């Protein structure tokens, strides 16, 4: 599976990489790392009764932001705002990772 920044929220968030406050941040690298970690959820039988919480779940949640966030709010959100909400979506299931 190819991991890419395909959603509109991710494309806005990626612009924050150019901000001095986020110097060195690479959103694609973070997403690839998150995909590897989330792929471990359900291994060894832990949480295997739940629906998949892999990167496809993250992509669906990011797509949902298009209708969850009102248009007038999208217009006033900064690149940093988009980055924070995308990172929140990326990391929201990390507590399910049991190693």
Key terms for this structure?
99 residues, single chain, 5 helices, mainly alpha
Task: Give an overview of the whole structure.
- This protein is an all-alpha fold and 99 residues long.
- The longest helix has 14 residues, at 55-68.
- The protein has helices at 8-14, 27-38, 55-68, 71-76, 79-91.
- Helices cover 53% and strands 0% of the residues.
Q: SSE layout and pairings?
A:
Layout: H1 8-14, H2 27-38, H3 55-68, H4 71-76, H5 79-91
Helix pairs in contact: 1-5
* Helix segment tally: 5
β-strand number: 0
As a percent range, the share of strand residues is: under 5%
Reported for the largest beta sheet, the result is: none
Q: What would you report as the Rg, rounded to the nearest angstrom?
A: 14 Å
SSE run: HHHHH
Overall geometric form: globular
Query: What is the distance, rounded to the nearest whole angstrom, between the alpha carbons of the first and last residues?
Result: 23 Å
Q: Helical proportion? A: 40-55%
Provide the structure class.
Answer: mainly alpha
Regions with little confidence, pLDDT below 50 for 5+ residues = none
| Arithmetic mean of pLDDT | 91
């Amino acid at each position: 599976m190819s991991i890419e920044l395909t959603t509109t929220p991710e494309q806005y968030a990626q612009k924050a990489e150019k901000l001095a406050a986020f110097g060195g941040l690479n959103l694609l690298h973070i997403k690839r790392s998150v995909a590897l970690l989330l792929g471990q959820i359900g291994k060894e039988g832990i949480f295997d009764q739940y629906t998949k919480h892999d990167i496809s779940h993250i992509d669906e949640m990011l797509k949902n932001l298009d209708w969850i966030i009102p248009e007038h709010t999208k217009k006033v959100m900064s690149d940093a705002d988009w980055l924070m909400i995308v990172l929140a979506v990326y990391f929201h299931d990390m507590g399910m990772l049991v190693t």
